[in-house]
DNA sequence: GCATTCACG
DNA sequence: GACGTACGTGAATGCA
């Protein structure tokens, strides 16, 4: 189909030199068949390909040219000899790639501009202005901040913008304003003040980006700012401004772009046509860029055709925008090739991989163990990956498939770990894992502290929490991520080890099969990291990842390793006691029913109560079964039905026994004698942690009988447990976020918040009004409805509605918060916490009312619950360093229960630790976020967790 | 494998 | 006019 409407010409100017440096540092060190390094060239080639693919898009190029820096000095060196003088020489494996960049450009048959004595920036500026003068749109493909001076709209509606292909981000006025705080015309003034270390532009000493922006904002431009120095109050800043004013003026000239260079080729020469396939195919073949070569063949001639075969996915809110772009990226990676993986069985081979790891500066890393328990399982092997298909498996603890099989050939485990340790601990090498907390704990047993780390699971969570579509899962497990982002189906664990009774340990898997599985995991992790990491900043998730979740990974890992001591004998005693009571109740219940039945079967119980005994109030759900839950039984009890009370008691004891007193004994690690939970960093969509195997976040406390279980969590001799709780944190955050004056005042004055609410709502405070106020306060946090509130207060829905109305009237702000939150979520598809954590609500605009309203209630709650999670996570990340600084290295943080932290510490440290813990927790939102109500923390100490409350 | 129930914040 | 009704979790149980 021909598009007959003439388009405004759109010129793309590719800043080739800048791209190469960035690509070199971000891409793996590939080599071509001749052994020449081509990592940066590959990145460059892929970028050109993608730009060519965009030809028919509305904002794609009609004209395109590549601008390269010609080596040598520019006119700026005549003005300032030291300009760019402190640049280190290009890395030696980058140097041979420079000429190949020219080759790549010619292979695409694209015009190439390089002029001696001028820098690429000047040439780009001159071409941009020339094009703009003709009414063309211009996109500068670069992220160089100097070029941001050019961004803006022309008088005739044409525009100049920038495209950062690494982040897949357009740069226009808002982005410039975000970076510099000023309009593009003033960017040069800001740069002149702050200078540029990379280009050796001097600027003014002591002035960085923040101060430079502030000065220009305040005084309007550089000259005014320099002139105003004389009238400033005495300070180091004033001195510097006066003393180095000349340096600033010189810098201003250096950062100015020369916009009137002679143009070596006319603009019309840059018109983009179909790309001749032949020279391109030859180039791709020569350098082994087979994935692109295949697409060239598949598209029968040119990247332009390839695009038509694979139309990019439309991007809308609530959709998964990056998926389309990600799919295109993956095409640049070779397909997963199991045959490419190496099984490392000699120390020489291991050393080669360790060397490759250091050279790559980024290694995907995965451990295989004999069971799914990082604290107790044995290490069976380690896999590493330094690039697509560049992956190996190092078997260390395989046993052979049965007692008669020969033990496979493996290098000595301890020697291998000894050699791997420097790589895994090197600050210069990023270790990437999928749920790397697990691997951190495995390696900790061998005294290896893996650092620094990235986690693809957490990265995915921080961008995509809650983001699931029909037919597309929203999880963050590796198999799911591989499927979603790479279109790749991983070897299933059950295909390697089987399931159920026939399941074998990974230690028994033959090496070839184990290598395929394990090396693939590392390979896929590497690929996922390559795709997902750049999306973090592009999608505004860097802050939450870098500042909250990533620092938390080693902290939570340490908590899991500590575990907590439980008193086995005491648990066993309780279990016995409960068992006897259950047996007695069982007899009574059967007697009351008239015949024995399975009390634990809600189906049978419902039939006994409502059919056999003929009680009223039986309501069947959609499964056609009577509901027999607590509220139903309590209602019956109030009506004087004795069996209801007995069943409630039976249920409570059965629950406590099976879920707690029995399960906790079974959870005691034979290795450490303690209970080690596993926290999930991606368990709750709101950003909360979750706890499994066993869940230590739902240990009973609300009833006296359940409380006894908390008393079974104890400290080691000479130590105590300390529990530190945020008091009413969610309500405090709601008061702050919704800006409710009455609630804020109540918190500031330390009042009983539910009593204060009762006073406002009912005019008097007594047990009943306070209880109702408490219920309503919670209802607010959860997204209130008259129908939900009414049964909880035992009133009609009309009465409930009246109370909600009074609440909104007495606490102005709440209704506005709800309204504003919902409209942003409807528009953007996600909610955000005070720290920028996103939570997606793909069903917020659903036509199904129940589904939509459910999303609405969750969306009202998510920013509050999520901000609370962010705050305690920040406290957790700061806790150990703060304790160490205070000389309290023996205080160990063991548990987190959403708004509570549990510590174990020597008795002698109690008072000092209290002060540190309280300070860290109360100040955890700052300095980046100021909460307008105090965050209260209550601390208790005791020999057991129960006693510490 | 799903529904029900109930433990926690 | 019916729907299911508070937010977020995980574990145990019974049953198809």
Automatic annotation (TrEMBL):
Stored Gene3D superfamilies: 3.30.70.370, 5' to 3' exonuclease, C-terminal subdomain, 5'-nuclease, Ribonuclease H-like superfamily/Ribonuclease H, Taq DNA Polymerase, Chain T, domain 4
Stretches assigned to the DNA-directed DNA polymerase family A palm domain: 706-909
5'-3' exonuclease domain: residues covered: 7-273
SMART domains (UniProt xref): 35EXOc, 53EXOc, HhH2, POLAc
SUPFAM superfamilies reported for this sequence: 5' to 3' exonuclease, C-terminal subdomain, DNA/RNA polymerases, PIN domain-like, Ribonuclease H-like
Catalyzed reactions: DNA(n) + a 2'-deoxyribonucleoside 5'-triphosphate = DNA(n+1) + diphosphate
GO biological process assignments: DNA-templated DNA replication; double-strand break repair
Pfam family, one: 5_3_exonuc
Domain named 3'-5' exonuclease: residues: 341-537
Keywords: DNA damage, DNA repair, DNA replication, DNA-binding, DNA-directed DNA polymerase, Exonuclease, Hydrolase, Nuclease, Nucleotidyltransferase, Transferase
Coiled-coil segments on the chain, per record: none
Protein family per UniProt: Belongs to the DNA polymerase type-A family.
Biological function: In addition to polymerase activity, this DNA polymerase exhibits 3'-5' and 5'-3' exonuclease activity.
Protein name (Swiss-Prot/TrEMBL): DNA polymerase I
Provenance organism: Novosphingobium sediminicola
């Amino acid at each position: 189909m021909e598009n007959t409407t003439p388009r405004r010409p759109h010129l793309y100017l590719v800043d080739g030199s800048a791209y190469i440096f960035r690509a070199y540092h971000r891409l793996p060190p590939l080599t071509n068949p001749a052994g020449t390094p081509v990592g940066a060239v590959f990145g460059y080639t892929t970028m050109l390909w993608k730009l060519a693919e965009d030809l028919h898009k509305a904002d794609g190029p009609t004209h395109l040219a590549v601008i390269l820096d010609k080596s040598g000095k520019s006119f700026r060196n005549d003005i300032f000899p030291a300009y760019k003088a402190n640049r280190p020489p290009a890395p030696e494996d980058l140097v041979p790639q420079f000429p190949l960049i020219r080759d790549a450009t010619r292979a695409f048959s694209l015009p190439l501009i390089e002029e001696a004595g001028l820098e690429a920036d000047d040439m780009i500026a001159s071409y941009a202005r020339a094009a703009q003068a003709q009414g063309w749109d211009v996109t500068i493909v670069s992220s160089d901040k100097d070029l941001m001076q050019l961004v803006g709209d022309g008088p005739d509606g044409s525009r100049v913008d920038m495209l950062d292909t690494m982040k897949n981000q357009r740069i226009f006025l808002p982005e410039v304003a975000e970076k510099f705080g000023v309009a593009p015309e003033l960017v040069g003034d800001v740069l002149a003040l702050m200078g540029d270390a990379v280009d050796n532009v001097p600027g003014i000493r002591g002035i960085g980006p923040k101060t430079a922006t502030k000065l220009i904002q305040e005084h309007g431009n550089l000259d005014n700012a320099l002139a105003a120095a004389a009238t400033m109050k005495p300070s180091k800043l004033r001195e510097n401004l006066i003393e180095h004013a000349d340096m600033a003026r010189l810098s201003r000239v250096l950062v100015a772009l020369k916009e009137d260079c002679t143009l070596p080729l006319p603009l019309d020469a840059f018109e983009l046509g179909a790309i001749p396939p032949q020279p391109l195919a030859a180039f791709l073949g020569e350098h082994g860029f087979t994935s692109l070569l295949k697409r060239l063949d598949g598209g029968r001639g040119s990247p332009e055709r390839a695009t038509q075969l694979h139309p990019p996915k439309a991007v809308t809110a609530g959709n998964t925008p990056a998926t389309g772009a990600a799919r295109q990226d993956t095409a640049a990676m070779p397909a997963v090739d199991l045959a490419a993986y190496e099984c490392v069985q000699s120390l020489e081979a291991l050393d080669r991989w360790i060397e490759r790891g250091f050279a790559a500066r980024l290694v995907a890393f995965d451990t295989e163990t004999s069971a799914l328990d990082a604290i107790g399982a044995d290490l069976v092997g380690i896999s590493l990956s330094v690039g697509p298909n560049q992956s190996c498996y190092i078997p260390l603890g395989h046993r052979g498939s049965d007692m008669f099989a020969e033990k496979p050939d493996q290098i000595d485990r301890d020697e291998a770990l000894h050699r791997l340790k420097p790589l895994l601990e090197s600050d210069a090498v990023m270790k990437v894992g999928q749920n790397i907390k697990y691997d951190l704990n495995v390696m900790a047993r061998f005294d290896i502290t893996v650092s620094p780390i990235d986690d693809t699971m957490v990265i995915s969570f921080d961008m995509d929490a809650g983001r699931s579509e029909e037919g597309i899962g929203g999880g963050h497990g590796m198999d799911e991520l591989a499927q979603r982002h790479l279109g790749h189906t991983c070897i299933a664990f059950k295909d390697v080890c089987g399931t159920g009774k026939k399941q074998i340990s990974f230690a028994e898997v033959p090496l070839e099969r184990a290598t395929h599985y394990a090396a693939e995991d590392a390979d896929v992790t590497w690929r996922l990291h390559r795709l997902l990491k750049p999306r973090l900043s592009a999608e505004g998730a860097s802050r939450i990842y870098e500042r909250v979740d990533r620092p938390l990974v080693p902290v939570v890992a340490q908590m899991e390793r500590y575990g907590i001591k439980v008193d086995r004998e005491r648990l066993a005693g309780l279990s016995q006691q409960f068992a006897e009571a259950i047996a007695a109740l069982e007899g009574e219940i059967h007697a009351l029913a008239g015949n024995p039945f399975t009390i634990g079967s809600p189906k049978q119980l419902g039939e006994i109560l409502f059919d056999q005994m003929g009680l009223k109030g039986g309501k069947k759900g959609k499964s056609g079964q009577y509901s027999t839950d607590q509220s139903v039984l309590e209602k019956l009890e109030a009506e004087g039905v004795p069996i209801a009370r007995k069943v409630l008691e039976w249920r409570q004891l059965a629950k406590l026994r099976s879920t707690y007193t029995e399960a906790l004994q079974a959870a005691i690690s034979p290795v450490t004698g303690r209970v080690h939970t596993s926290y999930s960093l991606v368990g709750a969509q709101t950003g909360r942690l979750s706890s499994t195997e066993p869940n230590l976040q739902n240990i009973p406390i609300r009833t006296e009988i359940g409380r006894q279980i908390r008393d079974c969590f104890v400290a080691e001799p000479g130590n105590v447990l300390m529990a530190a709780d945020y008091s009413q944190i969610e309500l405090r955050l709601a008061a702050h976020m919704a800006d409710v004056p009455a609630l804020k005042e109540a918190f500031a004055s330390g009042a009983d918040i539910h009593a204060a609410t009762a006073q406002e709502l009912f005019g008097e405070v007594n047990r009943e009004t306070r209880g109702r106020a408490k219920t309503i306060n919670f209802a607010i946090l959860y997204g209130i409805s008259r129908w939900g509130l009414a049964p909880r207060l035992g009133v009609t829905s009309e009465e409930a509605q009246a109370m909600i109305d009074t609440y909104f009237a007495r606490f102005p702000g709440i209704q506005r918060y709800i309204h504003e939150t919902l409209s942003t979520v409807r528009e953007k598809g996600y909610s955000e916490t005070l720290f920028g954590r996103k939570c997606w609500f793909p069903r917020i605009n659903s036509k199904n009312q129940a589904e939509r309203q459910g999303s609405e209630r969750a969306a009202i709650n998510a920013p509050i619950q999520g901000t609370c999670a962010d705050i305690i996570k920040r406290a957790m990340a700061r806790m150990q360093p703060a304790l160490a600084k205070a000389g309290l290295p023996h205080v160990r943080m063991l548990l987190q229960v959403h708004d509570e932290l549990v510590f174990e510490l020597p008795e002698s440290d109690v008072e000092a630790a209290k002060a540190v813990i309280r300070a860290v927790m109360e100040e955890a939102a700052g300095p980046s976020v100021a909460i307008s109500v105090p965050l209260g923390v209550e601390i208790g100490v005791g020999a057991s967790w129960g006693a510490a409350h």
